[in-house]
Amino acid sequence: MDRHRLLSATFLSLLALCFISETEPASFKMVNKCRRTVWPGLLSGANSPPLPTTGFELKSGKSRTITIPKSWSGRIWARTLCTHHQNQTFSCVTGDCGSQKLECAGGGAAPPATLAEFTLNGAGGLDFYDVSLVDGYNLPMLVVPKGGRGGGCGATGCLVDLNGACPAELKVAREGRGGSVACKSACEAFGDPRYCCSEAYATPDTCFPSVYSLFFKHVCPRAYSYAYDDKTSTYTCGSADYVIIFCPAPYTR
Ligand SMILES: *[C@@H]1O[C@H](CO)[C@@H](O)[C@H](O)[C@H]1NC(C)=O
Question: Any S-S bridges, and between which cysteines (predicted)?
Fold first, then answer.
């Protein structure tokens, strides 16, 4: 390596160091305002740094703050109606991640589940986040950025209890019990590529809202209601911390 290249390499490393020290980790505070215990699940995207936890129990009224690496992308959801079985396995009626343990360990949420999706420190140094009902709904959820700069930094989520309001053909009932525990997406319920934005409908120009996605959009206007719902559903904020509330007030379940 000649002297010039060595110098520029050193300069680049120093520059990289500056960026690393400027981008501190984010804190995510998860709050359970539901009447019952929930079990948050966390899934990192491909090439995303690992998290301190991938799943835990959060009792009603409690909160837990975790440190999220600054370039993390992934999703967070809540599992409900979970049981530690006598045979040492663990499973949940909604949002189960298939790990058979408290920690999801790389498992994603079984639909239907309300998802909070994040890409931290993405394009322009901004965080991108949304709450998605594309994989259905299991409980109300709110994402509130704190202390960010740049970007709109709006709160997003779905505040309404959709389990009660869910169209009959999308409702998920708990085995042997009344009531509804989740609400499927039309894609999951009917497997139609038109609802799934797949096959011939896999672009924003060919996949349109359906009566079902419009139902979700009407009740939860800020949340993603189908795969190409980007314009009204993606939020940005610079270097923020986030509060993620399950069953935000005034709705309690
Ligand atoms: C453990 O018990 C649960 C509940 O009875 C059952 O659904 C599950 O299949 C069992 N798992 C194994 C590995 O035996």
Answer: 34-247, 82-92, 97-104, 153-237, 158-220, 166-183, 187-196, 197-207
Chain CA centroid to CA 126, Å: 17
Rounded Cα–Cα distance for residues 61 and 221 (Å): 27
The rounded Å distance from CA 99 to ligand 1 centre is 12
Q: Which of 172, 126, 129 is nearest to 149 (CA)?
A: 126
The protein residue whose alpha carbon is closest to atom 4 in ligand 1 is 85
Whether 206 and 193 have beta carbons less than 8 Å apart is answered as: no
| Confidence (pLDDT) at 41 | 98
pLDDT at 4: 56
Share of the chain above pLDDT 90, in %: 82
pLDDT of 219 reads 94
Q: How far is CA 180 from CA 76, 91, 193, 222, 230, in A?
A: 22, 18, 26, 23, 28
CA–CA separation, 141 and 157 (whole Å):
5
Q: What are the tokens at 186?
A: 């039309």
Give the number of the atom of ligand 1 that is nearest the alpha carbon of residue 89.
Answer: 1
For the CA of 87, the closest atom of ligand 1 is: 1
Q: Is the CB of 89 under 6 A from ligand 1?
A: yes
Phi, psi of 219 (to 5 degrees): -80, -35
Residue nearest to atom 1 of ligand 1 (CA): 87
Residue-range domains of the chain with CATH: 24-162+220-246 (2.60.110.10)
Neighbours of 110 (CB within 10 A): 21
Per-residue pLDDT at 22? 53
Ranges of the chain whose pLDDT falls below 70: 1-23, 250-253
CA distance linking residue 57 with residue 82, whole number of Å:
9
